[in-house]
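Dear colleagues,

As part of the handover before I leave the project, I'm documenting each prediction I ran so the next person doesn't have to rerun anything. This entry is a single chain, and its sequence is reproduced below.
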Amino acid sequence: MNERLKRKRIKKIKNALKQQALRRYLQGQHTKHKTMKKRITIPIVTLIFLALTFHAQSQQSQMYSQYMFNTVTVNPAYAASMDRFTATLLGRAQWLGFDGGPRTETFNLHGPIKKEKIGVGFSVVNDHIGPINEVGLMLDFAYQIRLSRDKFFSMGVKGGFNFFQAELSNLRTIDEGDPAFADDINGSFLPNIGFGFYYYTNQYYLGLSSPKLLRNSLSKNSIQAETVGKEERHYYLIGGYVFDLTKDIKFKPSGLAKIVKGAPISFDINASFNFYRKFWLGATYRIGDAVSLMAEVLINNNLMLGYAFDYTTSKLTNFNSGTHEVLVSYKFSLSKSRLKSPRYF
């Protein structure tokens, strides 16, 4: 009976958000010349509905357009696949023009130890969407097995925590004292663990992972600690192949599939070209959501800069002017070992 009441409570919150978003939208159609303060409440309420729906219906993971250069965030086994340490900083501002739109900052560091059989690393993620903020720290450990001269298989585990909070009580709603926004979700500590497998050669790669296995509950800050949602397990399948078009031009199709209970399977399909081992130009289609154009440049053997722009293809395109993502990656070695052949993934 308690679980049934919880589900009814979640449904009531979602319905209230839907109704408020609709009312704000209809009001905006007839009051376009009113004050900016009134107009911006349309995307705010819609955004809150989207944000809480994401966390109540299993869309809790971050989204990256340049996922092929940020693999260790979702697959810990990747930590053992490189011959040097790699530090990556990524910033993403989503749905520009949509007040309170998602923003994500990510930093990760990973690399080999013990003659490159073991890989270690960590990731820090800071995620915002409207009144919701989530900060996470995850540690990675991976072990690599050499199957043949150019075939490798690695296994990895990930462990850490997320700190989740949502300041719902500070929002100004149409109905004063609306119980759906009466309490904050304040300071939920969410420990988690994950796993990953990664197989690669000089030309192609394939990975399977689940970075969060525990289904933590999200509770409001009240005496009864009412549950308003749960984290769900996300499964990632990634893969890609490098074709030699000429001596200096490579073509790499790749893809990412994200599977989670309660949501449609998400597919990212990418096609990228590498020129003279220095420049990447590519495009990604995220089915039903966005088209992304991206470019990366290797400044030298250690430093790479990247940029991606997403154009929304869903109904949200009317409320935003796109998404910007910037990436900086730096490789370094803790030993004087010689570098191997260049990797394209």
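Helices lie at 2-30, 36-39, 41-56. The mean pLDDT is 81.

All the best with the project,
I.
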